[in-house]
Amino acid sequence: MTITNSTNTNVYASLQAPAPALERTSLKDQATSLLREYIVKGKLPSGSRLIERELAEWLGVSRMPVHDALVQLEKEGLVVTRPDARYVIDLTRQDLYELFQVRVVLERLAAELAARNSTPDNASQYEQLLKEMKEAVERRDIDAFVDGHMEIHRTIWRQARNPHLQKALDSILGLILMFMARSEYINWDNTLERHGGIIEAIQAGDPDMAGECMTRHIIQSLEHTMQSLD
Questions:
Q1: Confidence of residue 37 (pLDDT cuts 50, 70, 90)
Q2: How far is residue 40's CA from residue 15's CA, in Å, rounded to a whole number?
Q3: Phi, then psi, of 84 in degrees rounded to 5
Q4: Which residues have C-beta within 8 Å of that of residue 84, sequence separation ≥ 6?
Q5: pTM assigned to the model
Q6: Average pLDDT, the chain
Q7: Which pLDDT belongs to residue 1?
Q8: Exposed (0-12), middle (13-18) or buried (19+): which is 59, by Cβ within 10 Å?
Q9: pLDDT at 156
């Protein structure tokens, strides 16, 4: 099948065909997860037109789970509705800056709360996550690097033990991953080192230091991402 974007070019030509099979249970969740992954990793480029009928045909499901999936992805900021159709978000530098304004406040709070909730039981999990991230850096494996990077952040969010804060962070997760996966400029070793510093402060139970380390990390991430867009 062919799914076209606003310029009528084939944007799915490089995608796996047919799509990975979806189980009959939780079709909406599975469709959402798959489409989110394809958007975040650039398999569905920014600006691509998303037509429910064609997506449903490609996924081998009815239009309802596809419709629900697109509604969910719109809530996450990955999809936008225009008069003629839905499209993959095409974010500007201003969008990026505004996203990081929100992210730095939320992530700093998460790091501070995680430090207050630090226990010895968390140490082994962080150690394993840092090990996996280090291995991804050594291999220059962008997918594993992005996944490992964000799993560290998600672990910190969970350790903050504030469901409202985690929900707010989850709502912008897709946009964060989208930028990370598409950035042409990655400071591999420095990013690994910064995460080590954040985790060290959290494990030491030092909220002020944890918050400061996280703030520096987010600001540097913004600077690096801006460089990739120049």
A1: confident
A2: 14
A3: -95, -20
A4: none
A5: 0.80
A6: 87
A7: 41
A8: buried
A9: 97
